[in-house]
Design goal:
Length: 432
């Protein structure tokens, strides 16, 4: 029996962070909006209206401030509580529409789908249905691209976003002539899976667009574009599906918590407060997936001592420690973490950022205990679960370890932070 051909779709939220902010601010409908990165540093999301004003992506806020203030562009600090919750709602909606096994959550604002229909004539209607239901149920606008492979679906999605008025935010890329024209208009730098370094190499070889790349020999791709990865990319551009759908990872193999400081930090005591806070966040994530960690790594990013020093060459300092027994108890992780921080910290330097990485992660019911230590796992788990439940219900770290500090002057700068509309009772949107 011949296997029925499957088609791929990608659903991508439009200006996702801005859409989340606009959802609870109807007065900003059709108004320009930008969202800033940690510490209100750079622009990481912008609406079409902001783009038309010339506001560029990834530029520092201070460089765009004149244009933003002159045109009354609504500005927001990153509100990850809100964005994470709205992302979950969008993904849950897609899973309800097409089945959980047919959805691969690719990022906070993107998901690949296995299209459950095979009649090409119905694809536009199907894409429109997806878009309308997601927008109706969540309030988040999305674009939908459909084609024979993931890579072509990404290109279709890009075309859907390029002229929203004409495409209605949907685009199906099936006709061979349309595929050829779309690939010719797609620069190699915009092909999904082609990084900056490869794009620069391809341009030097006079391979300027996706059509040029598609017509290269597979052996050449194997040699110059990372072996199997390169040949898969070429096949995907030819309409041969090679990149399969991936199941959502339940447990992470590594947990990282890191933040930029609101101001440069010079004191070890403030570094320790930050590390304790980050360890607490990481330990919560560990317990949420019923795991324990056996390796702790601490890193700090120091301010450059001169302009010739870059972050990637000498400004990042790190050290790690392997624990004798894997654990998810916050207090048992904080103690060695602070010991590492003391070793890494160099007096007289200013630090811009710090973070913790937990690895060597195993299921917490498979931890090898010490024969000479009385078992206390049940009491530890009860204590940590109680703390987690109280913090989840009361919010704002109602219970925390003293080493995390009280004032936390090092915390990120968020001058334009919006309320956590969906996850705090006292911050719910008022409707009058």
């Amino acid at each position: 029996m011949k296997e029925e051909k499957k088609f791929k779709a990608i659903v991508d939220c439009n200006s996702f962070y801005c859409s989340c902010e606009r959802l609870f601010r109807p007065d900003l409908q059709n108004k320009p909006i930008v969202v800033l990165s940690n510490n209100d540093g750079c622009i990481i999301s912008r609406t079409d209206e902001a783009k038309l004003l010339g506001v560029q992506m990834a530029v520092p806020y201070f460089m765009a401030k004149e244009v933003i203030e002159k045109n009354n562009v609504a500005t927001f600090s990153s509100n990850y509580n809100l964005y994470g919750d709205m992302s979950r709602r969008v993904m849950d909606t897609l899973k309800m529409l097409v089945g959980e096994k047919n959805v691969e959550v690719y990022s906070v604002d993107e998901a690949f789908l296995d299209v459950p229909i095979s009649h090409v004539d119905l694809f536009n209607e199907y894409a429109l249905h997806l878009r309308e239901v997601v927008e109706r149920w969540t309030g988040i606008s999305v674009s939908v691209g459909i084609s024979t492979t993931k890579t072509l679906a990404k290109i279709a999605n890009h075309l859907a976003k390029k002229n929203k008025a004409a495409t209605k935010c949907i685009y199906t890329l099936m006709d061979p002539d349309e595929v050829r024209e779309a690939l010719k208009k797609t620069p190699v730098s915009e092909i999904w899976g082609v990084g900056r370094a490869n794009a620069e190499k391809l341009m030097k070889w006079k391979i300027e667009n996706a059509w040029d790349l598609r017509n290269m020999p597979e052996e050449w791709a194997r040699k110059n574009l990372g072996g199997v990865v390169g040949t898969r990319l070429l096949k995907e551009l030819k309409g041969i599906a090679c990149i399969e759908m991936k199941n959502e990872l339940v447990n992470k193999k590594m947990i990282t918590t890191t933040r930029m400081f609101g101001k440069n930090v010079k004191e070890l005591s403030e570094i320790k407060e930050a590390i304790s806070t980050y360890i607490s966040r990481a330990a919560e994530k560990l317990r949420r997936q019923y795991c324990a960690a056996s390796v702790i790594q601490i890193f700090m990013v120091a301010k450059e001592e001169n302009h010739s020093v870059t972050f990637s060459h000498g400004a990042t300092i790190s050290a790690s420690m392997r624990l004798s027994i894997a654990t998810s108890a916050t207090n048992e992780l904080i103690i060695p973490a602070l010991q590492i921080a003391e070793k890494v910290f160099k007096p007289g330097r200013e630090y811009k950022k710090a973070g913790v990485i937990l690895s060597g992660i195993v299921p917490d019911d498979a931890v090898q205990s010490n024969l000479f230590t009385p078992p206390t796992e049940n009491s530890k788990r009860f204590l940590m679960n109680t703390v987690d439940n109280l913090n989840f219900s009361m919010r704002n770290d109602i219970i925390k370890f003293a080493s995390s500090g009280v004032k936390n002057n090092w915390k990120m700068r968020r001058e334009f932070h919006s309320p956590k509309y969906t996850s705090r009772w006292d911050e719910l949107r008022n409707v009058s």
